[in-house]
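Morning!

As promised:
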Amino acid sequence: MSEANQTINTSSVTDAAATIRQLQLGVSSKPRTLLGDAWRRFRRHTLAMIGAGVLIFLTLAVTAGAWWYERYMVDQQAQSGIPVTAENPDIRALIDHLDFLALLSPPTHVHPFGTDDLGRDLLARCIYGGRVSLAVGFVAMLIAISLGTIIGAAAGFFGGVVDQALMRLTDLFLSLPSVPLILLTVYLFRDPVIQAMGSPEAGIFVIVVTVIGALAWMQTARVVRATFLSLKEKEFVEAARCLGISQTAIMFRHILPNAISPIIVAATLEIGSAIIAESTLSFLGVGFPPDTPTWGRLVTDGSQYLQAAPWLALIPGLLIFLTVLSINFMGDGLRDALDPRSRL
Amino acid sequence: MAQYVLRRVLIAVPTLLIISFVIFAILALAPGDPLAQFALNPAIPESTRELIRIQFGLDQPWYVRYVKWLTALARGDWGFSFGTRGPVIDLIWQRLPQTLIVVGTAYLIAVLIAIPIGVISAVKQYSLFDQVATFAAFIGFSVPSFFTGLALMLVFAINLKWFPIVYNSTLNLAGWDGIVEQIRQMALPVTVLVVQQTAALTRFMRSSMLDNLPLDYVRTARAKGLADRMVIIRHVLRNSMIPVVTLIALGIPTIFAGAIITENLFRVNGIGQLLITSIQNSDTPVVMAITFIFACLTVLFNLIADILYGVLDPRVRYS
C-alpha cells in the first residue's frame, strides 16, 4: 500500500518536471509562426481534418493503392475468372481486362466494386479514373489560380488604364455563360488539340483543363487586386522601391505573400468545382473518350444499367461526391485557419 | 437613380456585343463542316450542297456572317436551324415552356425552403439545427447534380415507382389527372435543381442574418418590448433580405445552366437538351442562339441585381 503511494508520488513529481522542461523548451526553441498557428486552428476544425484525411487516402489509393491492387487483381483473376494474360500488367492494361465469367457482377471479393457489362473491373477503372479526375481538378486549379493571380496583381499594382481594362475583362468573363461555353469549346476544338497532342487522352486532358481553368480565374483576380490596392501604398513597398527592387519582385515577393490566404482557399475550392465541371462534361458525353474511364464517364456508362447494376453508376458518383465534399470542408477549415483575425 | 440605371444599361450593351462576337468566333473558327451531315448523304450531290452553303451564307468570311447575324438579330430574326430547316426562334419557343416551368418551380421552392432554414440557423447559431443545416448545405454544394438525379431516379422511379423516369411533354394537361401526372413527372427534375440551389441560398441567408442580428436597431427593437418573433420577422429578416434578394436574382442564370444537366438526365425536352443535341449535330445557328440567350440572362440579372440593391437599400448612393 505504502509502496504504491510512493510510486505514484515519484511519478507525478517526474511528470511535473518533464512538463516544466517541455514548457521551457517550447518557449525558447519554437516561436509561433503564421503557418504553425494556421495548422493549430485547422486541426480544431474536425470536418476539415476528416476531409483532408479522406483526400490523402484517395490520392494514395489512386497512386500507391493502384500498385498494390494490380497484384491483387491478377491473383484473384488467376484463381477465379479469366486469368490476365499480359505480363506485369499495369492499371492501364487492367481496366480493359474482360472477365467474361463475371458480367455485371455485384461487389465481391474478386471484384470489390463489381464489374460492368463487359466484365471489366470497376475498382481498377475507378482507380484509373480517379487519377484523371484528380489531375484535371489540380491542373485546372493551377491554371485558374495563376491567371487570376497575374491578372489581379497587374490590375491592382499598375492601376489606371491597366486596372480599368483588366477589370472590364474580368466583368466580361463573369458574364460569359460558362457551362454552355465549356461544352461548346471542348466539343468543337477537341479534334485539332488531339492531333496536336498525339493521343486522344492527352489532347482532351489539355483542352478540358485549359477551358475550365480559363473560365474560373475571376474571383481570384478580384481578391488579389483588392489586396494589391490596399497594400501598394504601404511603407514596406515604399522601402522596397527605395532599395531599387524591381517591380516584379515587389509584386510577387513583397505584396503577393499577403494575399496568400485567400488564394489558398480559392485554390482548394477550385479543385472541387473543376472536378465537378469535368465530370459534368463527361456525363454529357463531351469529355474524355469512352476508353478513358474518368469518374464522370463511369457514371454515364453505369447509368444505362441503373436498374440491373446500380453500383456501376453509384460508386463512381459517390467517389466524386466524397472528393468534392472533402475539398469543400477543407476549404472551409482553411478559410478559418488562415484568417489572422481568428486567434487561438 | 435613373442616370445610374441608364449608365448600367449602356455598359450592358457593349458587353453583350463582345460576348456574342466571342461565341460567334468560337463557332465559326472551329474546324469541322456544319454541313458535314449532308456530305454523308448520297442523295445530295456536290452542287446542291454548294447551293445550300450559299443559301445559309456559309461561303462568306465569318466576320461578314457575324455582322449579318447581328443585323438580322436586331430585326428579331434568329436565323434558320441547319437541322430542322425552320426558324431558330420557333424551336426555342417550342422548348422554352418546359424549361421555364421546371426551372421556375424549382427556384421558387428553393427560395421558400432556404429562407426559413437560413433564418432559424442564424437565430439559433451553433444549435443542433444549425449544425445539421450547415452539414446539409455542404452536401448540397458538393454533390454533382447528375449524381443527385441518378440517385433519386434509382430510389423513387425505379425501386419505389412513385414517379416516371422519363419526362413526357406531350402529356394532356386537361383535367385533374393530367395535372397530377405533370406534377409527378416534374418532381424529380425539380428536386435535383432544388438541392443544388437551396444549399447556397441557405448559407447566404444565414450569414446575412448573422450580420444584422448584433446591430443596434435589433437591440432597440427588443428593448422596446417587441416579441422575439416580431423582432426577427419584421426587423432583422427585412434588412437581411436585401443582399439575399440580389443573390436570388444573380442565381437565376446558374439555375438555367443547371437545367442543361437535369433536362438531359430526365429527357425533359427543354432548351438545355436542345443545346446538347444541337452541339452534337453541329447545328450552329441554334447553338449560337441558345448560348447567347444564356449570356443575355447573365447580363440581365446582373443588372437587375444591381438595381434591386439600390432600390431596396436606401443607403446605397449612386454617384
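Residues 1-8 of chain A have pLDDT under 50 and may be disordered.

Hope this helps with the figure draft.
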